[in-house]
């Protein structure tokens, strides 16, 4: 199902302040840094479970303690509420993982 694109005046800074908007590529990005690989993998596992639940999957890569994430709704060719929902969830999961250790 195609999602509606975010309005032109959507306030990224107030909604997901740690994410970087690339308007030309129509993506939001963030790099998460953890204490070690185990924390990074735990974060990715939480994100993967959530992504399956909402049927919205990130483009990401992992290198030891770092996870680089790019979000966009490919079927809509831009940013939608699903991207914001996933970004907010990832922010929360990041904090949960770091607090536990």
CATH architecture field: 2-Layer Sandwich
Order of helices and strands: HEEHEEH
Report the top-level CATH class: Alpha Beta
Could you give the order of strands across the largest sheet?
1-2-4-3
Number of strands: 4
CATH third-level topology? Gyrase A, domain 2
- Kindly provide the radius of gyration, computed on alpha-carbon positions and rounded to a whole number of angstroms: 13 Å
Q: N-to-C terminal Cα separation, in Å?
A: 38 Å
Task: Write structural notes for this entry.
- The chain has 101 residues and is α+β, with helices and mostly antiparallel strands.
- The chain has a single domain, classed as Transcriptional coactivator/pterin dehydratase (Gyrase A, domain 2).
- 42% of the residues lie in helices and 21% in strands.
- The protein has three helices and four strands.
- The protein has helices at residues 12-15, 37-54, 81-100, and strands at 20-22, 27-33, 59-63, 66-71.
- Strands 1-2-4-3 form a four-stranded antiparallel sheet, covered by helices on one side.
- The mean pLDDT is 94.
Features:
single chain, Gyrase A, domain 2, 21% strand, 101 residues, 3 helices, 4 strands
List the SSEs and their pairings.
Elements: H1 12-15, E1 20-22, E2 27-33, H2 37-54, E3 59-63, E4 66-71, H3 81-100
Antiparallel strand pairs: 1-2, 2-4, 3-4
Helix pairs in contact: 2-3
Task: Kindly summarize this structure in a few lines.
By secondary structure, the protein is an alpha+beta fold. It is 42% helix and 21% strand.
